[in-house]
Amino acid sequence: MIEMDDNEFGILLRPVISRDDDKFGNLEVSVFSNQMPEVDDEVHARYMFLAYKMASLLSFCEEHPEFDDMLEDYTTDLLEKLGLTEEEKREPKPKVTSKKGNVITLDFGTKCGGNG
């Protein structure tokens, strides 16, 4: 389950990978939102349209490869500016090793065994 605040929208990408396909397979795209109780229906509809617009970019890029190339260059540059390139060394995410009551034990992948 995805936890969302009242005023959040989401775009969910669900890969449907076929063993016959050596690339990406198919991709199901879903747009969803919470009710946004503090805004009227017109404002909610505008945000929902923006979310659909973002989701439709995938099929638009597929139909317009020249635009896809421009967007890929833009995205690559943006990720570099934000320091999110794959070359950057990323901190390992902790792994949940056990849950007992309200105690969660995490493994950060260190070699010190918690003595460190």
Which helices and strands occur, and which strands form pairs?
Blueprint: E1 9-16, E2 26-33, H1 41-63, H2 65-82, E3 95-100, E4 103-107
Helix pairs in contact: 1-2
How would you characterize this protein structure?
With 116 residues, the chain is an alpha+beta fold. α1 packs across α2. The strands form two sheets. It has a two-stranded antiparallel sheet with strand order 1-2. Strands 3-4 form a two-stranded antiparallel ribbon. β3 and β4 form a beta hairpin. The mean pLDDT is 82. Helices cover 35% and strands 23% of the residues. The relative contact order is 0.09. It is built from two helices and four strands, in the order ββααββ.
Structural key phrases:
two-stranded antiparallel ribbon, extended, 116 residues, alpha+beta, 4 strands
Summarize the structure.
With 116 residues, the protein is of the alpha+beta class. The chain has helices at residues 41-63, 65-82; strands spanning 9-16, 26-33, 95-100, 103-107. Strand 3 and strand 4 form a beta hairpin.
The number of helical segments is 2
In N-to-C order, the SSE pattern is: EEHHEE
The fraction of residues in strands falls at: 15-25%
For the largest beta-sheet, the strand count, sense and barrel status come to: 2 strands, antiparallel
Helix content: 25-40%
Strand order of the largest sheet: 1-2
Total DSSP E strands: 4
Instruction: Give the helix/strand class.
Output: alpha+beta
The residue-averaged pLDDT reads 82
